[in-house]
Input
Amino acid sequence: VQLQASGGGLVQAGGSLRLSCAASGITSILRIRDMGWYRQAPGKQRELVAIIDSDGSTMYADFVKGRFTISRDNAKNTVYLQMNSLRPEDTAAYYCNADPPRFSWGQGTQVTVSS
Output
């Protein structure tokens, strides 16, 4: 399974971005069940941002609750992360993977929030 994250960029504080994670090498991401978005800032450990299960139930890290929304389109084998009210501390490389992670991380997509 290959997971390709995209949609990152440079945005001002308070702005929004929508990340996409396209899965290939698998007939359906429903087979993965739980999918997650993770992020890693320079000099810090990778951390879990949000999870969505095959039924659409979601869970969020406290630091993004109320600002980020995870969703999935099983027909497109794609998971999304809508990020609103972005803050400079959200600056990081964002990755998608299963929860718990078990696939190659890939390159991720860089999100940079300027103050």
